Amino acid sequence: MSDESAETPDAPSVSAEDLHDRIRRGERVTLLDVRNRDEFEAWRITGESVEATQITYAEFMAAKARGDLSAFVADLGLGEPVVAVCPRGEVSATVAADLREQGIDARNLAEGMEGWARVYVPREVPGAPDDTTVLQYDRPASGCLSYLVVSGDEAAVVDPLRAFADRYVADAEARGVDLTVAIDTHVHADHLSGVRRLASEAGARAVLPAGAADRGLAYDATLLGDGDEIRMGEVALTALAAPGHTTELTALRLGDVLFSGDALFTDSFGRPDLERGDEGARDLAGTLYDTLRDRLLALPDETLVAPGHRTPESAPNPDENDTYTAGIAAVRDRLRIPDEKSAFVDRVLDSLPPRPANYEDIIPVNLGRESLDDETAFEMELGPNNCAVAADD
């Protein structure tokens, strides 16, 4: 649907940041989403306290044209206050204004789902080594998680997002340190990496797993092998090869903190079909089994998993400053990896959601083989993430 010709009448609005804060506090949130049904089903605002109703803008305006908007709205049974949602916050402003004329406490989500995609929230991860600070950045719209590690007078960022490259630099400067290292745990397929941007504009050293070269990496970077260290300040990040989601994926250990990328989430693990498609998914699922059983889930119980994504089902950890982290023992219990590799592989291949939007275009950009302007890049990664295998119920 198009917002281009919509009027934007005077209607109270709520920012995406304020809406996110309400959801995080567990306040009841009633959303009236006037995007098309397929847009709503593919990607929407979620949360335990969120009650979302979907109608199209055309349905709403048809009821208004018939003169029975009051009955139409009453049949929806909306709780108040209502927040109207559309792609860019334009037609939803009209809907919010019309609802207010019906006596309903309604607000408009400013900038719509595009505004929601710009929410980026940092929280400190407890358990880092002494004199080291770890911030987890959460992008609620996609579940992408990135990390800023500060030690001494240096900072490193793990799995940075291109859309927020300036944010990491500013947050490092606010702490009186220089951002010197930008690391990707693997070649991402769901979002545009910020590593190249930080290398070119902030002078950070670009770091990727050694296997990225085999996938066609086309820009200069330090390549990490299993067991290699990245020293910064008073600490070192140690590489731990963790293939399966991709062939080159490499996790990083910082004391008891494990930056697991897309190899392991707090309640799931990365899908194995984005690099080699259906043909290579079975072999990589077998590799993923070995990585989980023999490497990651075999780490000491005091290990804290700091993943590269959270799923829609993920809950913040109240024991870890409400970050999306979990102790490795709890993750083992949640995942229930079967003893037989074949059973695991079959389960994985039967549990794959739709692939991330535009992944075949995003990968070559992240390898440095193609370029995109910022507006196109931002639009390309809008939508659901879908990097995780569906959780086992």
From TrEMBL:
Gene3D superfamilies to which the protein is assigned, alphabetical: Rhodanese-like domain, Ribonuclease Z/Hydroxyacylglutathione hydrolase-like
Note the SUPFAM superfamilies from the entry.
Answer: Metallo-hydrolase/oxidoreductase, Rhodanese/Cell cycle control phosphatase
Q: Which PROSITE patterns match?
A: RHODANESE_3 (PS50206)
According to the entry, every stretch annotated as the Rhodanese domain falls at 25-125
| Domain of life according to the entry | Archaea
Keyword tags: Metal-binding
Q: InterPro entries, per this entry?
A: Metallo-B-lactamas (IPR001279), Mito_Persulfide_Diox (IPR051682), POD-like_MBL-fold (IPR044528), Rhodanese-like_dom (IPR001763), Rhodanese-like_dom_sf (IPR036873), RibonucZ/Hydroxyglut_hydro (IPR036866)
SMART domains of this UniProt entry? Lactamase_B, RHOD
A GO molecular function assigned to this protein is: metal ion binding
Read off the Pfam families from this record: Lactamase_B, Rhodanese
Tell me the PANTHER family matching this sequence.
PERSULFIDE DIOXYGENASE ETHE1, PERSULFIDE DIOXYGENASE ETHE1, MITOCHONDRIAL
What this protein is called in its record is MBL fold metallo-hydrolase
**Where does this protein come from, organism-wise?**
Halorussus caseinilyticus
